[in-house]
Amino acid sequence: MFPTYDVIVVGAGHAGCEAAVAAANLGCKVLLATMNMQTIAQMSCNPAMGGVAKGQIVREVDALCGYSGIVTDHTMVQFRMLNKSKGPAMWSPRAQSDRMQFALKWRQMLEAHPNIDFWQEMVKGLVVKDGRVQGVCTGMGLEIESRAVVLTNGTFLNGIIHIGEKQFGGGRAGESAARGITEQLVELGFEAGRMKTGTPPRVDGRSLDFSRMEVQDGDTPAGKFSYTDTPALGEQMPCHITYTSQEVHDILRTGFDRSPMFNGRIQGLGPRYCPSIEDKIDRFSEKTSHQLFVEPEGRDTCEIYVNGFSSSLPEDVQFKALRAIPGFEQVKMFRPGYAIEYDYFPPTQLQTTLETNLVKNLFFAGQINGTTGYEEAACQGMMAGINAAMAVKEAAPLVLKRSEAYIGVLIDDLVNKGTQEPYRMFTSRAEYRILLRQDNADLRLTPIAQRIGMQGADLRMDRVRAKQRSAAEIETFFRNASVGPDEVNGYLTAMQSAPVAQKVKLYNLLLRPQVDIASLAAALPELQHFLMPFDPEFIELAEINIKYDGYIRKEEEMVQKMNRLEDVHLHENFDYRALTALSAEARDKLARHKPRTIGQASRISGVSPADVSVLLIHLGR
After folding, report:
1. β pairing state of 338-344 and 160-163
2. What mean pLDDT do residues 195-207 have?
């Protein structure tokens, strides 16, 4: 009935979809197994992609020929570039998506790929022989053979949904939990844990009074995620902002005695940076209000997502509290918020390829590794799919360095440090933020996609080369062109910048914090004429390169120093316990993690700089 597949991907959420695409675009025959074909790429929580650091990840996935950015551009209803008041290392794209169209576009793109087949059924176990995965076993008892398997089970592994004092099995509202995989993996020697996440109530937008809320419009003109020729966003939909109050908090507190979070029924840890509303008012009891983002679920629905009001309190308490929020006085609720507990596997049991240490050619990606967020899941899925394909082809794996991508930072953090709570990416987690900007993800990663043979990378590289050439041409012009006081002093005065007494290079003017290319070009017709043929994205890259040249070079020097440690390899059978000069904790952690390089060893929690020095001395360095 089935052929032998190169790669089977279990789960069709954001991680699973990207894993399937990555392996298929590397020439593998892929089977995407899901419990429900109608929920492929479902936005289970908020209808949005990107955000702080997450937007950088989506652009990185796109630069590696993934589909998340393309799908987002085709289906978004609003676009905003966050943190524009800060430096370019902090600029983060975010899009409000049409939830139904997002899932539909993903399904269309997957079904259009000739290397991807589908199977709708629960996968209850793996076929493992001699320490190597050889396929999956379905709920109906079918065995499907493959040379590699990627598990992207999301919140479905033994999932339990909590609403007040009620609890029932489920991986998502209205969908069954997946059973069998956790138990088998534990039997194979894996360590499992429990985590918790939650979602807010969905409400009827027709019942809201938006005049009582703050309007949050998108950027004009709207940006996009993909470096490909995706359509420009037309009419944008507004989001709105409102606030809780002391009255709302008091109503919510009346349900605390029935809260599964406070009465001990929920054991798993929830996301620190996206807490439930009851957690927020408990932990930050001194605050009398919290901000709520009122977000449309799409163009063709009145359903509204109440971002910031995640809750597992009883339905009646949620409803009463909602009606005390400005603009929500007549609110109608489509469904209450809920919490969900699920199994995960501490990611220290993985290699940096996302292959498991215990079972060959078995890869984990997404929430099974303890992460939270569509973007974090998507990039793990992509890397797991790539490395599953590489394993099948017996080719060298792809491991991105911390200096190459936020994706590299995320996976390195997970594998070396682990996580006891849902891991979310932030710009602060990356030590090379100026190098890992959202505007240059294609320059960093598309050459890698081409090198490994990713389908579509050759065409993308034409644009990368054009971008590099254009930015270099613009920078050269700024270094060589000069302007006199009579040409530029009026502009400088208007910009509250000191006038010049003699001719000055445009390059030196642009180094001033008050000066930017757009306003300077508006004041200098010759510059405006020169810039006219260039793509605005290319001009932006040149401006960042000029303004932040010193910082960029400094970070590049830091990378070179760190790469020296990354190039010092450690043998897989290195006997750390025999090296008594190491601290006891370091011996234990190094023996357990078996790092591949000194750089990787240095990032393991509990390994000190002194321990690293001991290793270097032992290796004769």
Report:
1. antiparallel
2. 96
